[in-house]
Amino acid sequence: MSHLRLISFALIAIFSTATLAAAQTATPVPNVKTDWSSMKFLLGTWTCKTVKNTMGRGTGRTETDVNSMTMDGHYMLTNASSKPFDKARTTTLITQGWVGWDNVTEQWYTFGISNFGGFGMSTSPGWSGGKMVWTDTYASDGQPKGVTTVTKVSGTKTTSTNVTKTAQGTETSSDECTKS
User: Fold this and answer.
1) What is the pTM of this model?
2) Residue 9 included in any domain
3) pLDDT at 26 over 80
4) If pLDDT is split at 50, 70 and 90, which confidence band does 5 have?
5) Three-state SS across the chain?
6) Contact criterion met (CB below 8 Å) for 96 and 118
7) What is the pLDDT of residues 45-100, one digit of tens each?
8) Can you give the pLDDT at residue 86?
9) Domain containing residue 115
10) Which CATH number is 169's domain given?
11) N or C: which end of the chain has fewer CB within 10 A?
């Protein structure tokens, strides 16, 4: 009788384990891939030059941007650097920024940081007629928020204009970028 009872307990244990294993099957985590086809031309190394700045500083400033995909293709990462460009800026500016796609709001977003402690976020609905408009949603240290319009001139050239309204008036800067 004890032998029969032992077999019964063994069978119950086996069936219970199989039932628990089936009940605890992992739920797959959604891994929705972004369609990067409109942005892929930005990958690689770019040299950007500030061609206009109404603030009186920065015209002629150059920046090197290196864009690559990261985080399993969910983000485009930009590593950028700009050497000192006037007597007030004596340290190289280093920035990192990420671009991603929000499937719920159906818009692009970007966020970035700098070695000067800056942080900013912007959103864009995407390309329309060769232009992409980014609207700042956050700027650190109470900095004013602006709107940047990027124009795709070709697969190797872009221009951009940033317009920011401040207490002193409207500030405008323009850049030209060429892919290396």
Assistant:
1) 0.82
2) no
3) yes
4) low
5) CHHHHHHHHHHHHHHHHHHHHHHCCCCCCCCCCCCCCCCHHHCEEEEEEEEEECCCCCCCCEEEEEEEEECCCCEEEEEEEECCCECCECCCEEEEEEEEEECCCCEEEEEEEECCCCEEEEEECCEECCEEEEEEEEEHHHCCCEEEEEEEEECCEEEEEEEEEECCEEEEEEEEEEEC
6) no
7) 999 999 998 877 778 889 999 999 999 999 999 999 999 987 777 899 999 999 99
8) 78
9) 40-179
10) 2.40.128.20
11) N
Q: Does any domain span residue 11? A: no
Cα–Cα dist 116/127, whole Å: 30
d(CA 10, CA 4): 10
Residue 62: inside a domain? yes
- 111-152: per-residue pLDDT in tens? 999 999 999 999 999 999 999 999 999 998 788 899 999 999
